[in-house]
User: Fold these one by one.
Assistant:
Number 1:
Amino acid sequence: MTSCREAEPVEDSESTRPAQTWRRRPPAELGLDARKLRAFTEHVGGNGCIIRRGWLVHDWGHPTKTIEVASAGKPVVAHFLYRAIELGLLPGLDSLVMDHEPRLGDLNARLGFKDRQITWRHLLQQTACYGSANAPGTLTTMTCRWRCSGGY
């Protein structure tokens, strides 16, 4: 796995936290290129904002409008999962989720506590079959997604 660029240290004087509204700073003050941000937002469309070190540096569309993001968060989850592995916070994709969420060990006694075997890979690939009678990883991604979402 290739290494991610290490995060730059953030001094307290450079960072802020939101109150009722985000405080703004120009992108260049925080090392971002305003032209590239505009190009990005023209490409993705919709609504959104970019926060850097606690400062609002760019927004587009109607960023305060609540929207359904559906699967848009999956790449973000995958990024942070791989980052946790890279930092040694998780041993790997095939380690058990139960090691970090022990409550899985108490679920589904009538199904032989099948959820004890859910791995991070199962969650990432959506084959954990959480909420169905099938063992983790035994169904294809599409079948498991369909069954686990109440499609049967």
Note: The two ends are 38 Å apart (CA to CA).
Number 2:
Amino acid sequence: MDITIHTTALPHSDADASLAFYRDTLGFEVRSDVGQGRMRWITVGPAGQPGTSILLAPPAADPGVTEEERRTITEMMAKGTYGWILLATPDLDGVFEQLKARDAEVVQEPTEQPYGIRDCAVRDPAGNLVRFQELR
């Protein structure tokens, strides 16, 4: 099988704040921006990697989600326990310093993990955990 990861989705609670984080803080390209207000879908991705994207989407837009599920999603997002993504870089320290300089909410400074990787973590404006693993 020839399979690639094309797009993954993360929820947003404020489209403009999420757009600013992924575009201005992480330096991602904006690939599309459709809808308006709370019903806005934004696709971003790393420069030079047009085949890989993140869809920033309203979390409860699916008509199959009940009001109770919407409340649960909103609560989990507020606690930072709903969405997360793992990114990778060969320059973890450089990326971390840029994230701090751009006022990203730091969750974990670069750390050597007991399971053999070195990583750090920040939160995006919706509370999603964004982890960065050092490529070795």
Note: The longest strand covers residues 29-36.
Number 3:
Amino acid sequence: MTNDMTIRRATVADASSLAAISLEVWLNTFIRDGVNAFFADYALEHFTTARFEEILGDRNETVWVSQNVVGIDGFLHMSANSPAPVDIASDLEITTLYIQPRHHGRGLGKALLKTGLQFCLDTGQPGTWLAVNAENEKATAFYLASGFEMAGQTHFTIGDQVYPNHVLQFRLDR
């Protein structure tokens, strides 16, 4: 992690930056062989400024950003009251942890994750959970190396397409 980075709570003024990073990371991670209308329509519907403004106004949603001297280069989004699809004690979900690809390896993901785990402690949660695309081996390895453990399987659906996801949990009671 470099000294030119700050972790802070996101504000409504960050909504467009969060949408842009989401589009960049999601497309870079999952769309490898060209963009078709099916995936483009999904991304453009879900990763919008208005949607992030809505998230930032919801008391069950918490977003932290990693900001360098130029702007936001990553973020962590956590959702309270979000029961896991498998039997896990916590209902605090790590909904999204996105870092711009050119900033990977700088410790931003670890710093944001540490902030989220501190939030678990501060709010009395026994831990947190997340779902990660089963084909995203880099992300899965990152979470497992960060102390998460496999808790089960679920799926992510776009239209009539279904994609397997691992459900991982981090337990603070260990």
Note: The mean pLDDT is 92.
Number 4:
Amino acid sequence: MSVIGACRVLERGIIGFGALVAWVTLIPLIAVSVYDMIGRQFFHVGSTRLQELEWHFFLAVVMLGLGYAYLRDAHVRIDILRDRLTLRTRAWIELFGCLLVLVPFCMLLIVHGGELALNSFVTTERARAPLGLPMRWIIKSTLPVGGLLLLLAGLSVAIRNAMFLAGRAPSPAPAGGELQRG
């Protein structure tokens, strides 16, 4: 298997995991949010646990979907400027962006998020609210896991851009829907 092929396999795995996370968390997030909103608005009944569950689902979908969003080219960019650049210039910017910004950011998420999650597990941290959710370490674990997924996605994109710049790949990465087509 070629380096580009290995990158594509890794990227398909990250995208598959991101899609699974979206389906597993978005539907319960919507259901819990609607249920909580109806309870508060019409029956004047609120629930601390439901509100915490809402932000737990939200954080899970955001953190565990970062790699997916990056590979799908679904994150914020300055498209007006980017669309005017050559493919080689885009590849250089993406390569340097990955190595100088994305990798250090992901390392911070992995290391410090991992410390937060581990500390939370060891101390059996729970919500501060008396009726809040226990096992805070579960949601805090999405920080290092999400950072790892984004790091793997970023390294794959960096490798593919380096290969493009070396003339060994047909196009720069990420290319959004490219993984769907093959």
Note: The first helix runs from residue 3 to 42.
